[in-house]
Amino acid sequence: MTTQPVDTDPGTDLLRAVVLAGGLTFEREVSLSSGTQVVEALLRAGLDAELRDADADLLPGLAAAPADAVFIALHGSTGEDGAVRAVLDLAGIPYVGSPAAACRLAWDKPAAKSVVRSAGVTTPDWVALPHSTFRELGAGAVLDLIVARLGLPLMVKPASGGSALGAQKVTRVEDLPASMVSCFAYGDTVLVERFVDGIELAVSVVDLGEGPRALPAVEIAPESGVFDYTSRYTPGLTEYHTPARVDDDVAQRAADAAVTVHRALGLADLSRTDLIVDAEGAVHFLEVNVSPGLTETSMFPMAVEAAGHRLGDVLTRLLHQAAARR
């Protein structure tokens, strides 16, 4: 697949940017790593960039030293459920990324899967199970119904959240209860979906003023066979191939799916859609991230580089667009 060239010229006006990272979620350390990478890329691109935590000092700090635009490198609920963005909207502070309402929708994986399926993108069958239902109706009976409906193997993961925290592949019925309990540590609702064996792809989408466009897909090949938290953030445990080693028609369908997801959920500026390609070449939607990781092992920077761009230039262009929306 050939990716259409995009204009990443950030312009000449010096911009003061604040990069939000950290927060108080399970993904704090990942967020700080992303934020540090973003600041370094922006400084190299010639911007005045500062890293700030999402804490009680944030709003007074922004009032005292206003930013032209904010880049949100927060992961987990702090940066992805729309709450911080809603506060920035109240304060009239422009930011890069999707609006609060779209973030809330994307953050809820079962709801996002429903919207994406309605938009014509295939996604594995699933069941969303709140902890109260799991407890009140009896774990054994409920899990028996899930296995009867979806079969084995299964993918068990929190219904909201990122960085693959709590995500587990379950191949044996006897392992399902423990996986569910483990998942409930990360949230009140667990998403159980049919496991699709195949090639996992991450397709990043950016909108640099000419509509959302997909960057080259990143193929993810974890040594363990499952792209969990350890595989994702431990260098050497996962191989990445950009562009992905798939046929051109599969790459194009993956790109089309990612753009459809971006549009259907009302996302803006940037996103990363996780897909899996089965043995027949069918592309399945897994989930979408409105605040893609930007660490040394993250897929968004890989895709930007594969498209022939510099990360700092792309981020600078997005910040200029956000500032212009003020």
Automatic annotation (TrEMBL):
Cofactor(s) needed for function: Mg(2+); Mn(2+)
This protein's UniProt keywords: ATP-binding, Cell shape, Cell wall biogenesis/degradation, Cytoplasm, Ligase, Magnesium, Manganese, Metal-binding, Nucleotide-binding, Peptidoglycan synthesis
E.C. code: 6.3.2.4
GO molecular function ontology, one term from the record: metal ion binding
Binding residues for Mg(2+) 2: E287, N289
All residue ranges annotated as the ATP-grasp domain in the record: 113-320
Compartments where found: Cytoplasm
Domain of life of the source: Bacteria
Catalysed reaction equations from the record: 2 D-alanine + ATP = D-alanyl-D-alanine + ADP + phosphate + H(+)
Keyword Nucleotide-binding: yes
UniProt protein name: D-alanine--D-alanine ligase
Organism name: Klenkia taihuensis
